[in-house]
Every structure is written in structure tokens, then in C-alpha cells.
Amino acid sequence: MDGIDKIWAQLAGRPILAHSVLAMSEVASELVVVVKQPDEVRVVQMLEGLRLPVQWRITRGGARRQDSVRSGLRAIRGSEYVAVHDAARPLATGALLRKVLEAAKVTGAAIPALRLTDTIKRVAESQVTETLDRSQLWAVQTPQVFSTETLKKAYRQAEGSDELVTDDAMLVERMEAPVAVVDGETWNFKVTTPIDLEMAEALLRVRHHAGMAKPA
Predict the structure, then answer these.
(1) Domain membership flag for residue 1
(2) What's the CA dihedral at 9, 13, 16, 20 to 10 degrees?
């Protein structure tokens, strides 16, 4: 967004990354924040300022998403389950993480997703080639939760592959392991454009006012 790394864009007075970290810290027993080398000092300063209720550490990311997740997995210390969350989804809630975690405890892996409501068409060279059956199509979100051993095994089996991994459930699916789907949150979208940021600001205001209106 205008040359700024989106995780540092200000949302309600805090970086987007801070909102994501705070939501995950409501449930997680430990946090591993995967960062780019130039951001390491800045991330540590931000985390110290948040005064999180859980232990945290940072680790350096890689060139691709899967490289960064692999780095994060190596930094985990003894947790039975691991949640992988995109920092650019600042409106995810602790309640969503709890729901996905409970499903993962049954199957070993679970993801939040929303049913598609739009008509979906396959397009090639600006021409429609096919209209897809949306009844079986879901838009996937994070946090995604896995038993730690399941996800580590999936990454071991994918070692050396050049394929771009867009979400971690892909690797678990290839082991033919079950991946449960739970209803996601409509406001849990990825902030990628200035308009997304404006929408997130508006939704946070609504959430704040709704919280203020709750009876004591």
C-alpha cells in the first residue's frame, strides 16, 4: 500500500501486525512471529510494547511462504498444536482460533472458510471457459490449526519441492490426512489495499461500539 509493508499500516492506532498478534495471544500458549531480517528490531520493540500475556519469540522468515512457516515450526517449543495465521488478517478473533483448535483436536487439522456466494467462472485469455459449481467451493482463511507433528510431517514430505504453497492445509491434504472445515468470520479478510484498510477501520469501530453497548 503506497510502498509501505502492509503489516505496518496503521489500523486504529496500531500496526496491522499488532492486531493479529493480540488476537492470537488470547488463546495461544506461545507465539512465534516470523519476520523479515530488516524488521527484526522493529518487531521486537512492538511486541515488548504490547505486554503480551504469553511467551513470544521471533524467527527469520524465508523467500517463500512455506519457507517462513518451516522456520516458525522449528522455533516452536513443545506445543501439541500449532496455528498458522496471516499477519495481514488483523480482524480475526480469539473466538475463531478457539473454534478451529477444537476441530483440529478431533481430526488433527482444521481450517476456517466461508461458502462462496458469487458465481465463479474459469477464464482464459479474457474468455469464460467454464462456470464452476459453487456449492462445493469455499474461500479459505487463517488461522489454520494442525497437530504440530502432522504439520511437521507434511513439511518434511514437501522438502525440496519448488511448488508455491498458498496455504498449509495443501500439504496436509497431500498426505491424504483429514482437514476439517469450520465456518470462518466474514470480517476476517486479508488487508491488501487502502480500501481494505478503510473497511477494517470501520469494522473495528463497529466492534468497539458493540462491545461498549454490552450490558455489564
Answers:
(1) no
(2) 170
Whole-angstrom Cα distance, residue 128 to residue 66?
Answer: 32
Residues 14, 18, 23: CA angle, nearest 5 degrees: 120
Chain segment 37-77, per-residue pLDDT in tens: 999 999 999 999 999 999 999 999 999 999 999 999 999 99
Q: Please check whether residue 35 lies inside any domain of the structure.
A: yes
Q: Quote the pTM value.
A: 0.92
State the Cα–Cα distance between residues 180 and 111, nearest whole angstrom: 6
The single residue listed with the C-alpha cell 514437501 is 158
**Which string of DSSP letters, residue by residue, matches 35-93?**
E-GGGHHHHHHHHHHHT-SSEEEEEE--SSHHHHHHHHHHH--S-SEEEE--TT-TT--
Contact at 8 Å (CB) between 157 and 164? no
Domain count within the chain: 1
Residue 85 maps to which CATH number?
3.90.550.10
Residues 6+ apart with CB under 8 A from 43: 17, 33, 35, 58
- Cell triple for residue 28? 495461544
What domain range includes position 36?
6-213
Q: Is 97 helix (H, G, I), strand (E, B) or coil?
A: helix
Q: Taking Cα atoms as reference points, which of 93, 62, 75 lies closest to residue 33?
A: 75
**At 205, is the secondary structure helix, strand, or coil?**
helix
